[in-house]
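Question (not urgent): is this output format expected?
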Amino acid sequence: MQLRRNVLTRRTAAALLLGLAAAGCTPQPAADRPAPAAFNSTDTAWIQLMIPMDERASLLTDLAPARAGRPALAAWAKEAESRLEDELADLRELLRLSGVPDTRPHEGHTMPGMVGLDTVRRAKNVTGDGFDRLLTESLRAHLVQVRMLCASERTSGSAAQAKDLAATIERSVAEQITRLDEVT
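Got this back:
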């Protein structure tokens, strides 16, 4: 009798679960835990592109204190480096939250606005006005491209966290461009 009751209970539970699944009901997240954000392909592509873009820009800003000819430009680059570090931490956290593995699909690529490795090599061999021109041209192109990428993310992304970060970065980029114009 006990065995028969146990089998009937399991069958009833299985039928109930199947019915709930067929009706589209899913368990709700606990009230103290927010539901994970839905990341679409635009969100993940934006994150996966922004990380190497910022990493490459960082390679150039790292050189500024020792190579820049104008102290004001070196100070700007130091501020830019700090912002890049913060952005990278936020982007890496978003990538983790998205559940997408860090496969580095843009590793080794050179795209519009991405500081090229050849540019970094040249920057290591020049100082003063030559470095200042290279830094200014490269980082201005980086900032303009980042602004466009962030605008695209805000328009086509779906994860609120990614869209919010894109808006924050976009505001930061506008400030950085203004400041760069002042020091050049």
